[in-house]
Structure to design on (505 residues):
């Protein structure tokens, strides 16, 4: 801010005449005279010298003109002094503000000094004028003396005030210089601190860039985790579908087991019916043996010839052949049913094993994916903690980073919720697999029991069938032997008939 500088100029001679009567001149009041004090050399008041009457007569018009000029100069000097005081105050304020105003304040102080020197010169001129005026007239000398003394006192008071103010300004200037020096030191410190802050700001900017890169990587990781979560959800839906398919297979296995049970019951009933038929065939063989023995007794007792034994023997042979065919057919049908049941049991067992392996593999894959997602979430959580620690730096302006951190926190919460859902679903799937395993184990135990029972019943049936076949062979051999005996008896009968004919002839 530039201040208007007052420079001493020539004193203009007023055109209006002023009264010659002496006036009491108003004392000049400075604004800071009460509180401030100046120290400057005291002006030497010169006493008027007595001069010769010639000189007084010669210079009396000039003294009258100067006497007219004096009352007009006082307010000008007062205004100049007030202006100087205002400028000194402004200089004081400007000195405190910055170092650049120091030179201006010094210049203004020098201007003030020059103005003071000019004022001193003007005072000397006025004193010379007063001395010249004292030479004019003795009567007016006293008046002029009084006026000069009054003015000297006024000027002295004004000069004392100006000196006090100047001393205060000089002390203020010294304190301002000290303050400027201190401000220089503070400016150096501030510049150093600003350089350090600039370095910190650069490091903070680099950290912000790295954090932005890390946040982009974190967002990519979050997107990858979302994709993995979507794939895991799809895999979960596939696992649920596989579980439902496994349940359907279990239902099919249950149905097949029920059908196997029913077929086994039917085979047991057929075995029972075969056993009943075999018992009936045994009874018939026994009755045939009794009949053969009875026929032998009849043949032995009576040598009569008849066609009834041969007919009965042929009937027995046909019945034995029928029984043998029925036994072979029953054995073949039992073997076919047994093979079919064993094949169905093997197919069911293999399907159950396949379902078990697929469920175990699926469970292992889901557990592996869950562990991978947990590891990625832990890594992402560690990165978020690092970012939170980095964001705690006070020099960092991280509003956008906080927003992105909140977004990543919300994404992390969503991931945690989805992971909890996946864990619960995986637990439910694992429980369902355990339940299926227990059911499959129970079914295997029951199937093993049924296999053991079927093997035992098969062995028993084979033993009974072997026994029946032996009995049938025995009955067949007995029938053959009986046929041979019947042939022999027929031959004997024929011989006897021939001998009887011969005897008749």
């Amino acid at each position: 801010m530039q201040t208007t500088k007052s420079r001493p100029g020539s004193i203009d001679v007023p055109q209006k005449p002023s009264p010659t009567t002496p006036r009491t001149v108003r004392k000049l009041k400075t604004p800071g005279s009460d509180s401030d004090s100046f120290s400057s050399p005291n002006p030497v008041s010169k006493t008027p010298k007595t001069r010769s009457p010639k000189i007084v007569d010669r210079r009396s018009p000039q003294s009258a003109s100067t006497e007219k000029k004096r009352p007009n100069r006082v307010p000008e000097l007062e205004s100049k002094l007030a202006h100087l005081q205002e400028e000194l105050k402004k200089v004081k304020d400007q000195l405190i503000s910055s170092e650049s105003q120091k030179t201006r304040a010094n210049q203004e102080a020098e201007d003030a000094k020059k103005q003071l020197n000019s004022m001193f010169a003007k005072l000397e001129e006025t004193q010379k004028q007063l001395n010249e005026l004292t030479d004019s007239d003795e009567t007016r000398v006293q008046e002029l003396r009084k006026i000069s003394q009054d003015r000297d006192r006024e000027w002295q008071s004004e000069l004392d005030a100006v000196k006090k103010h100047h001393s205060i300004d000089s002390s203020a200037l010294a304190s301002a210089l000290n303050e400027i020096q201190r401000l220089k030191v503070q400016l150096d410190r501030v510049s150093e601190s600003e350089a350090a802050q600039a370095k910190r700001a650069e490091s903070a900017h680099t950290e912000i860039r790295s954090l932005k890169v890390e946040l982009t990587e974190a967002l990519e990781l979050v997107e990858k985790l979302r994709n993995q979560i979507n794939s895991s959800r799809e895999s979960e839906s596939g696992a649920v579908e596989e579980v439902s398919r496994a349940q359907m297979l279990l239902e099919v296995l249950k149905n097949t087991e029920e059908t196997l049970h029913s077929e086994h019951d039917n085979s047991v009933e057929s075995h029972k019916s075969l056993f009943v038929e075999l018992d009936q065939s045994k009874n018939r063989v026994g009755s045939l043996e009794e009949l053969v023995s009875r026929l032998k007794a009849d043949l032995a007792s009576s040598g009569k010839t008849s066609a009834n034994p041969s007919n009965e023997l042929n009937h027995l042979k046909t019945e034995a052949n029928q029984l043998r065919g029925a036994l072979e057919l029953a054995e073949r049908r039992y073997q076919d049913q047994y093979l079919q049941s064993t094949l169905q049991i093997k197919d069911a067992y293999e399907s159950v094993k396949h379902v078990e392996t697929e469920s175990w593999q699926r469970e292992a894959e889901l557990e592996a994916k869950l562990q991978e997602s947990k590891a990625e979430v832990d890594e992402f959580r560690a990165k978020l903690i690092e970012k939170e620690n980095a964001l705690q730096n006070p020099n960092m302006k991280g509003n956008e980073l906080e927003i992105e951190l909140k977004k990543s926190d919300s994404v992390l919460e969503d991931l945690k919720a989805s992971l909890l859902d996946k864990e619960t679903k995986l637990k439910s799937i694992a429980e369902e697999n355990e339940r299926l395993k227990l059911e499959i184990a129970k079914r295997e135990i029951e199937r093993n029991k049924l296999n053991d029972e079927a093997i035992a019943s098969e062995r028993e049936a084979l033993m009974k069938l072997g026994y029946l076949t032996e009995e049938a062979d025995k009955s067949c051999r007995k029938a053959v032997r009986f046929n041979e005996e019947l042939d022999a008896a027929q031959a004997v009968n024929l011989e006897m008939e021939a001998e009887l004919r011969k005897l008749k002839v």
Observations:
- Residues 1-60 have pLDDT under 50 and may be disordered.
- The chain has two domains: 53-202, 204-504.
- DSSP finds five helices and no strands in the chain.
